[in-house]
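Encode chain A's predicted structure.
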Amino acid sequence: MKTAQELNSLALRTRRLWSEDGYSPIDIFAIVNGWKDKKITIVKYPMSSRISGMCTKEKEDIVICINSKTSYGRQRFTLAHELYHVLYEEGMQRVICDMSMNSDKSESEREADQFASYLLMPYDALLEYEHDKEKWSLEKIIDAEQFFQVSHQAMLHRLVCDNLLSDSIADKYKKLTVSTVAARLGYGKELYFSTEEKKQFFTTGEYIRKVERIAEKDLISEGRREELLLEAYRADIVYNYDEEEANLND
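Encoded structure for chain A:
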C-alpha cells in the first residue's frame, strides 16, 4: 500500500496538473468538468445508501457516477476518490465504492480515500489551518470543513488519521446534527444536504461535449441529438429551461 506521504505527493501533483496551489480549497466539479485533457463524464443519480459512487474506464473514456442522495460535501469527496481509481490504478475497468470509511476496506479503497482527503485538503494546508491538536474544537472543525468544502465525516476521519482528534471525540461529534450547528455559526447548510430532487439525475463533462460536437458536424440528426441529451438527463439543454425561466423573470 502507498504511504501517506506518497498519496499526498500524488494529490499535490494532480493539483499542479490543474494549475492549483497546495493550500487553497478547490472547486473540484468545475475543474474536472473543464479538464479537456481527460475524457471524463460525471453522472449524478440516486444510488443505494451503501454506495457513494462508481467509475468505469474504457480506453480513454472515463465515466464517474456519484450518488446524488449523499451530501454535497460527500459528493466532492467521492469525485476525488473516484479520480484516484481512474487516474492512478493500473488495469482499472470498473469499481463500485462503499460509503463507509472503515479500516476494513480493501487496500485500493483505503488509498483512494486517503488520496481524496489529500486532494481536497493537502497535508500542509490542513496543518497551516491549525497545527495545534488542542485547538480542534467543534467550531474549528466546522470552520475547516466549510473552508475546504468536505463532509463532516470526511473531516473527522482525516483529523483522527492525522492524530489531531481522538476516536472518542470524533464519535461524539458524528452524532450531532451538524447542519444545525453550522447554521448557528453563520454558515449555510448546503454542504450537508443532498442534491435537490429535480437535479438528482444530471450529466456533465465529456459526454455532453461529444454529443454537441457530432451534432455540429451533422453526423446525427437533431432528433437523435435530443434523444442522447435526454438519456443523459439534460432536458434543460433540449428545452432551454434556463432561458425560459429567465424570460419569465424579465
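The chain has a mean pLDDT of 93.
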